[in-house]
Amino acid sequence: MPTLKKAENPFYFSTRLILRELTGRRARNIKELLKGIKTVPGSVIYNHTHQFLQQHIYLSPEPPNDFAYWVREFLGDDTLGERLNSIDTCDYVTIRDLRNAIIKTIRDYLALKKTPFRNAPKGTEFNFIKAYSFVLPTPYVAYDLKEFLEGIKKISVYSIYFHMFEAKLRLERGTNDFSFWLGTSLNEPELADKIAGLDPYTYTLEDLREKLIKLIEKYL
Fold first, then answer.
1. Which of 69, 117, 122, 208 is the most exposed, having the fewest neighbouring CB atoms within 10 Å of its CB?
2. 4-33 pLDDT, tens per residue?
3. Are residue 109 and residue 170 in the same domain, yes or no?
4. CA pseudo-torsion sign 196, 201, 205, 206
């Protein structure tokens, strides 16, 4: 068996805990929703585009974002709801870019809207919620591809979520942590590109783990 390449810097697997907090801001209609999206902190945008995925980690993929769900279910606007839901989060590497895409979608829709704005029924207003993320170390460290594979098998789905989703978008690293390490420290650019090319939003987190395992095993 050939000697495995050793990384210049080991990969430290981390996990995270989330604490959510009401901001006190609400929206009753589309215009108020747009105003809030423009001005709330990025952590609020991240929470409302990833909350379903974080809370329902074993359910089917393609989770809806909270903005689309509220517009459709409580304002009864299926057209705008569908447009918001069709925003592909995987296309964006920063919260700022994702926020701008949501703003543009709503603005474009409002420019064409002819009917009066509807308010949500009392008690169903949109509440903007902030998500605080606490990153914690795990006991798992990888110096080569075999140890990396073993780490992927052992870590929790919350750790997979942090490295695949949060590191790329919320921390604005441009790619997921796994691909970054494989490409820069372990000199495995092909594997790094294959993992970076995955659309993680189309998998449950356990399915995503299995996909990662299969990709890595092909290189061992």
1. 122
2. 889 889 999 999 888 999 999 999 999 999
3. no
4. negative
